[in-house]
Write a structure and sequence with these properties.
Layout: E1 2-4, E2 7-8, H1 19-22, E3 32-36, H2 42-49, E4 54-59, H3 61-64, H4 72-81, E5 86-89, H5 97-100, E6 103-109, H6 118-127, E7 129-139, E8 149-151, E9 165-167, H7 169-178, E10 181-189, H8 192-206, H9 210-213, E11 217-225
Parallel strand pairs: 3-4, 3-6, 4-5, 6-7
Antiparallel strand pairs: 1-2, 7-11, 8-9, 10-11
The chain binds S-adenosylmethionine.
């Protein structure tokens, strides 16, 4: 994360490379934004930088210090950036309009696959979305036409015991519709070149068979509940 010109944190990945794929609205002036599973807050701070009137970053697991992170990185970035992004330590399944309110734009980026109850999670996310949802997730079973969700009860995916599910695209779109997002746009899918490079890397590093990883993809979708109130408008 770039905190100042020439001052870049030594993170695992550079989240800025994902921005073009997300199609995050360029102008968020006056909008309220909820970043669910914000972790170090890159996308929360980016929404603020794009003019959002209010940004609430929420997380639980990586802020609790029990897993792969702590909240200290988010807090340090907020301080150095002089940011007014608000924070709330709250799990996805605890979200609701009575707890956090409803937002013009909700970011749910790379969190769905951490959910053992993905449909319930999407129901909670829908309940706090007044406008647009931007969702990014891992997909699996992409060669299956029937809506289907791969379930990883014990760290089967990447050896990561916090990853529980990989829907295919029909299941993802079906779940979004089921929880009330009546308009959905698939904004981007991972490129075949990137997927092949990833499959090769995971095979080399962890011995994961390529026929497994090549069934997986990454997708970004935008979704709207009721009448479309596109945050880009
Ligand atoms: C892969 S990281 C994604 C971080 C960020 N949204 C991004 O796209 O770079 C997943 C995040 O989801 C959070 N998370 C996992 N389970 C959660 C839960 N039940 N409630 C809230 N956050 C959760 C983790 O703590 C972590 O910060």
């Amino acid at each position: 994360m770039t905190l100042a010109p020439g001052l870049v944190t030594p993170g695992m990945i550079d989240p800025s490379v994902r921005l073009p794929h997300l199609e995050l609205p360029v102008d968020l002036r006056g909008k309220t934004v909820l970043d669910v599973g914000a972790w170090d807050g890159f996308f929360s701070f980016e929404a603020e930088r794009r003019g959002a009137a209010r940004v609430l970053a929420t997380d639980s697991f990586s802020w609790s210090g029990e897993g792969w992170g702590r909240k200290a990185c988010f807090e340090l970035a907020r301080e150095v950036l002089g940011s007014r992004v608000e924070d709330r330590q709250i799990g996805v399944l605890e979200l609701g309009p009575e707890r956090v309110g409803r937002f013009d734009l909700v970011l749910f980026l790379n969190v769905l696959y951490h959910m053992p109850h993905p449909l319930l999670a999407l129901e909670r996310v829908a309940s706090v979305t007044a406008g647009t949802l931007i969702l990014e997730t891992h997909l699996n079973l992409t060669d299956v036409a029937t809506p289907a969700i791969a379930f990883y009860p014990d760290g089967e995916m990447w050896g990561d015991k916090t990853t529980y599910c990989g829907p295919n695209l029909p299941a993802l779109l079906g779940m979004l519709k089921f929880v009330g997002f009546d308009q959905v746009r698939v904004v981007s899918m991972s490129s075949p070149t990137w997927l092949r490079a990833r499959a090769l890397a995971l095979h080399a590093a962890k011995g994961i068979p390529m026929q497994e990883t090549l069934r997986q993809k990454w997708a970004v979708v935008h979704a709207w509940c009721g009448a479309r109130t596109d945050a880009r408008a």
